[in-house]
Amino acid sequence: MKVSIFDVAKKSGLSVVTVSRVLNGAETVREKNRQKVLEAIKELDYQPSAAARSLARGKTGIIGLIVTTLQDSFFDAVVKELNEILAMQGYFLAVSVSTGMESDESHYLFQEDRVDGLILLSPMEESKYILELKRRGIPYVLIDNQLPENDAYSVTIDNYKGGYAATNHLLELGHTSIAHICGQEMFRSTRERRSGFLQALQDSGLTPFEVVHGEFEIASGYDTCKRWLAEDDLPSAIFAGDDHIALGVINALQESGLSVPGQVSIVGYDDHYIASKLRPHLTTVRQPADRIALAAADMLLGRISGKMKRAASMHIDPELIVRESTVAAGGN
Length: 332
Prior knowledge:
The protein is α/β, with parallel strands linked by helices. It contains twelve helices and twelve strands. Among the domains are: 59 residues, 434 Repressor (Amino-terminal Domain) (Orthogonal Bundle), CATH 1.10.260.40; 129 residues, Rossmann fold (3-Layer(aba) Sandwich), CATH 3.40.50.2300.
């Protein structure tokens, strides 16, 4: 098995950042630590890649990524794609799972000479991050940021189009009683998906069965659907704010002996791993992790190299994936 920089870091008992700095000839590494790294390299017979050796002297060869959670298959897919893309360019991705700028993990990545650039994936407190990054002169890119005023150097999904497409699909199937269960209001994606939903209904001269303000959790869909069942008042179709919400709805309906999509059609959002494993397979709106990661990596590397002089943003269209959880109104 090929030895990686991570193996060297483990063997030496030091961080990947420190190993990278030794490989790139940084003068700020303590001599004691430098010797540890060199000994580990010799023992493991580690051979840095040509791409890594070609990194400009004085660079760490590390890109930092801050994400609020990895308990999300969409985030996980984006991180995986970023790791592969950056590795091909000779960079290593240092991932920090952090809910705020004051955490130890975030503070570590903000320290001088730790990283060549930072990617913020669906950040909270993004304005605070941006202020500090600008102060320290660290190039950055946002993915799925919450505030439109921070769209400079960002990659976002057009969630309005996604919400519209999901709802329009149900309308084209003849559904007129359509509900929407949202995620948390703090997320821009929540607000934009809802706006697309409402606009699609308005364009057809309809009003929602109900708009429920919930969370991106299975329990949100389950509890909402249980309430509708208790009230004996169900919509014929539901646009769920994400696939987890959709799963909760399906669980509640199937527990009650109701058919999906025979009696209620459901559309999710994200195209999580579970979407194609559910029974029935879930109709959903896919966020293309590969295109998002490539756009973010290209933008950040352009900033690091100095080739990207002007602020820019990229909006990527989602894709409706039609599977088994939606049928024509009244269908069985």
